Every structure is written in structure tokens, then in C-alpha cells.
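Researcher: Structure prediction, please.
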Amino acid sequence: MRNVIALDVGGTGMKAALVAADGALLYEARRATGRERGAEAVVESILDFAAELRQLGRERFGEPAVAAGVAVPGIVDETDGIAVYAANLGWRDVPLRARLAERLGADGNGRCPVALGHDVRTGGLAEGRIGAGRGADRFLFLPLGTGIAGAIGIDGRIEAGAHGCAGEIGHIVVRPGGPACLCGQAGCLETLASASAVSRAWAEASGDPDVDAADCAKAVESGDPRARAVWQEAINALADGLVTGLTLLDPRTLIIGGGLAEAGETLFAPLRAAVEARITFQHIPDIVPAALGDTAGCLGAGLLAWDLLSAEVTA
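Model: Predicted structure follows.
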């Protein structure tokens, strides 16, 4: 059975799969990224994991993987296959596509083309094609996790931008003079409305340093006024950022994922109301939760690999 390698590399863990042409997951595995061992060790772990998966494909399904797709965080040059920078992995200018293709081509199983993608855009690709955005010609995918980034979906593809930076909605300034952001600005959306921002705000408001955003959501549901104030402040900031995005992009569907989305209607009901209260001439999109959870990046990496093969056939 023909299959491709799909790898989603995160700051702490890697999710991997062998994916069939119809999108079925034939095999799944996870392992630690091992960033504490240094950037080069992380790269070697990725190469080793991919090589093991290719051999596994041959042993279990009678054919080694015919291509590989890899999603990584940070700044990614998808055209040249370079992992430009990732603060949480410590690497700079890693020619990851070339190194993977070399490693996989040297395993005795023949050539294996490789596609490299940005983790959020790759997750957005999966959500758009086979998840919550299926059938939408224009969508915006927004995972609310440690930070906030976005993926702009247009007719089945993800717009990377002229320099690979499209979708960085987390760095729209929504509160000038607000909290300092690692990007060098102050008051960026992700400093106020990410899961980590809510965790920090609720820890301060509750006086408990061990609480997180999920605890805040539970406190909101129980009627705690302090939690409701923290939650509403985050929703107001998020709605301000989203209206900027909606005004620029006019998506048909807005897909919210990440840790905050796990709060369900505790997030979505007030967020829809806040966005609707802010729009004037804009068309409000369907605001829906992501459907694929933490498998989106891996599934998207598989789609990148199959797309690469299709492009080679038609070239």
C-alpha cells in the first residue's frame, strides 16, 4: 500500500504517522523532541525518526514511503526547504528538506521527495481540507495555545505570504502600551488572549501560581467573578484582533483551535457575541471549533507530501 511519512515537530514532542493516499492513518507514533540536547541533536532525531518510519512502511505495507512531509515551528522558508529559526528548538538556517531527502534516499529504498511546512499553516491545511473548514473557499485557522498564529486558507491551499510570514495575527497590537511581547512590541494579541496569557492572568487574579487557562475556564463556569473578568478581558482582546483579521481577509469560516478552544461554548458563545458587536459593514463568518485536535499538524504534513507527489506528476 502506498504511503507517505508525516512528521509534526513541536517544542517538546514529535507526532508522526504513515498516511495513505485517502488520508487514512496507517501507523502513528510519538516521541520526545529532546531539545535539551541541542539543535543538531533535534535535527538528528527528526532524521532518525523519518528513516525508521520509511523502513516500517516497507515492512508492514510492502512499500517504503514514497514521500515525506514535515511541519516545524518558527520561521520556515517552504520554497527552499529551510528551517530558518525556531526559538524553542534553538536552530537557525537548517536545510532540513535537503538533509531529510539525503537521509531517506540513502536508506536503500530509493528516492523520497520531502516537503517542509510551517506547523500552524500545515495544521490549517488539514483543518481546511478534511476538518472544520471542509468546503469553505476562504477560511482563517487560529490556534490559541502558548502563542497565537494563523493560517489563511484560499481555495484549498494556505497562503504563506511573500516572505513566509503570512498569518501572524498574534502580533497585531490590540492594546498599545500593553504587556511586552517577545517580538519587541507591546500589547500584541498573543500577550492578552493566548492560553498562556490567560494562565498568567488567572494565576495573578486567583493568587495561585499553579493554575492554568483550563482552570480559569472551569472557574468561569462555576460563576467566579474574578475568573469571569480575566476571561472577558481575553475575549475582548481576541475579538479586537479577529475583527482586524476579518476586515482584511473576509473569510467564510473562522476556525479556532488550541488549548482555549477546549473550553467549548464557554469560549465560543461570548466570543461570537463580542465579534458581532464590533462589526459594521463586515460579514461575520461561521466561528467554529477546530475538528482535528493535536493531529492536525501531522495530517497536514501528510497532505503536503501527497501534494508534492501530485505536483511532480503534473510537472
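Model: Residues 36 and 130 are 35 Å apart (CA to CA).
Researcher: Thanks, that helps.
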